[in-house]
């Protein structure tokens, strides 16, 4: 595993230095397609978080705080360039650690991460205040200032890309960072730290503390020296972070789970919608917060659609994620595989009809066969809870109002999609769906410029675009007496 050996394993990145965890603990990160250990990673705890926050504060009050916006932008651009020039290695690290296919890692995750740094590089010089026509004989203006030290906690499904989504806008706005990657996939965040150092980012601006959620993560959330927590992960941990963050009144943005409806009308382009529905649930082996896990098909199209979808699914190559032909890798961990299979059992027991899949693939690795359940009712567990695996629930509907109601009958509101050739119907449904993103005749598109985030229990705050940038700023009003 040449790429894995090139990482600075076993160490934290604090204040521009690679350092052991204070308690000298380490943990193993595992390749989910072979079940073999990849390497040891430092287990950071509260005292390491303390050191990282101190380094971040010092950088914020020092070199980084004094740097011009133009120079900050240049640094972000340089990080984007380095991501691009190291993209093959980063993609390999990501595939080894997470089980996502090398095709997805190299064509999507890594190039989008580079793009994200370049996009926000451009923003650094465009964060402007306003002049305000106040009543008093005063000159009133506003400044858009960084928050200070930001704690960022990310999950394992898009480890490198989500690190970019969080780090790039925070740096563009002038903050400093303590980043805690997920225990299952810590390696690519360590590579990002190395790249930041190579690009000349001053010491302490980006600190990476690997470790576990209940220790390192919780210490970051509790830390009085951290001004904001930006979190992506499960709704239950999001709720816990909100509760804990109340003690120090942390600013929060939360990107949480989803149970996204994918609505196919009978007048949709059948082949496009079939491919879209498959992609919506099986991309990244279903470990996607926006996965189109509830597929609503209009009654007259149902049988033909399901036949095509099942045939399409049976042709998806599953296996070694390093093989460029593979479309479906293993689940990220044994625990996640077990969780997914438990949902499959529940689906069977609650009376959904298993069409295909529903089992672990034989041999090594945490592979779950792509699974389709038909005759699912919206009140079944598999239609209500986020499974985070390659398990699709198919539901039928008869008209627009009915499907809008059923699609919205979920505590989540991250994303949704609608497939129809009728442009009025498409836009009507887009307005009716209570979700932060709606795709029309496509699924799973993202862009550094397009805001992304949840309605309802999928969280609040936005990432990417101008909205995402603003989440890392605060407004100061300045009054100057002119009388
Ligand atoms: P998770 O527990 O919410 O983990 C996300 C991140 O939060 C990880 O870095 C985790 O650290 C950390 N964390 C855990 N407990 C914490 C705490 N008390 N305080 C601070 N940080 C804490 O998610 P998961 O267990 O890895 O995945 C479970 C489910 O989360 C999935 O099945 C899915 O439903 C959802 N999920 C959603 C998204 C999304 O994009 N919305 C992404 C991934 C997962 P450790 O990993 O080190 O424990
Ligand atoms: Mg791993």
3D structure, described in words:
The chain is 40% helix and 20% strand. It has 17 helices and 20 strands. It has 483 residues and is an alpha/beta fold. The chain has helices spanning 2-5, 46-61, 63-66, 69-85, 87-98, 102-123, 159-172, 187-198, 213-222, 235-245, 270-282, 302-314, 334-349, 381-384, 400-408, 423-432, 465-470; strands at 12-14, 17-19, 26-31, 36-42, 131-132, 138-146, 149-153, 176-180, 206-208, 228-232, 251-255, 261-264, 294-298, 353-356, 371-374, 391-397, 415-419, 437-440, 459-460, 473-481. NADP nicotinamide-adenine-dinucleotide phosphate binds next to α9 and α10.
Give a brief outline of the structure:
By secondary structure, the chain is α/β, with parallel strands linked by helices.
């Amino acid at each position: 595993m040449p790429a894995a050996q090139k990482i600075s394993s076993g160490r934290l990145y604090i204040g521009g230095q690679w350092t052991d965890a204070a308690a000298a603990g380490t943990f193993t990160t595992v390749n989910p397609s072979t079940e073999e250990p990849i390497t040891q990673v430092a287990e950071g705890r509260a005292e390491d978080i303390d050191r990282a926050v101190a380094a971040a504060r010092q950088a914020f009050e020092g070199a980084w705080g004094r740097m011009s916006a133009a120079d900050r932008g240049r640094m972000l651009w340089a990080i984007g360039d380095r991501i691009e020039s190291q993209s093959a290695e980063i993609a390999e690290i990501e595939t080894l650690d997470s089980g996502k296919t090398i095709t997805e890692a190299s064509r999507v995750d890594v190039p989008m991460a580079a793009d994200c740094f370049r996009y926000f590089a451009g923003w650094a010089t465009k964060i402007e205040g306003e002049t305000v026509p106040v009543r008093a004989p005063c000159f009133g203006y506003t400044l858009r200032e960084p928050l200070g030290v930001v704690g960022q906690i990310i999950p394992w499904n898009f480890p490198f890309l989500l690190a970019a989504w969080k780090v790039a806008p925070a740096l563009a706005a002038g903050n400093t960072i303590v980043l805690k990657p997920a225990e299952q996939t810590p390696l690519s965040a360590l590579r990002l730290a190395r790249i930041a150092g190579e690009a000349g980012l001053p010491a302490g601006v980006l600190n990476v503390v690997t470790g576990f959620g209940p220790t390192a993560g919780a210490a970051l959330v509790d830390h009085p020296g951290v001004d904001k927590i930006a979190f992506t992960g499960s709704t239950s941990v999001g709720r816990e972070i909100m509760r804990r963050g109340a003690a120090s009144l942390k600013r929060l943005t939360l990107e949480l789970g989803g149970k996204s409806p994918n609505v196919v009308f009978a007048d949709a382009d059948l082949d496009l919608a079939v491919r879209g529905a498959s992609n919506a649930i099986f991309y990244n082996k279903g470990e996607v917060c926006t996965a189109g896990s509830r597929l609503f098909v209009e009654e007259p199209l149902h049988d033909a659609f399901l036949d095509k979808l099942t045939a399409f699914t049976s042709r998806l190559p599953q296996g070694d994620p390093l093989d460029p032909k593979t479309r479906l890798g293993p689940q990220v961990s044994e625990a996640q595989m077990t969780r997914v299979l438990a949902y499959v059992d529940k689906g069977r027991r609650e009376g959904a009809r298993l069409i295909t899949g529903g089992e672990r693939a034989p041999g090594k690795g945490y592979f779950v066969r792509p699974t389709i359940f038909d005759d699912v009712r919206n009140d079944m567990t598999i239609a209500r809870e986020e499974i985070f695996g390659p398990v699709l629930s198919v539901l039928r509907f008869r008209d627009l109002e009915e499907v809008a109601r059923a699609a919205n009958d979920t505590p989540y509101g991250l994303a949704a999609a609608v497939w129809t050739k009728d442009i009025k119907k498409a836009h009507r449904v887009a307005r009716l769906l209570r979700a932060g993103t709606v795709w029309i005749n496509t699924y799973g598109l993202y862009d550094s410029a397009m805001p992304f985030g949840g309605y309802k229990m999928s969280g609040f705050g936005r990432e990417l675009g101008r909205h995402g940038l603003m989440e890392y700023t605060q407004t100061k009003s300045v009054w100057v007496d002119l009388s």
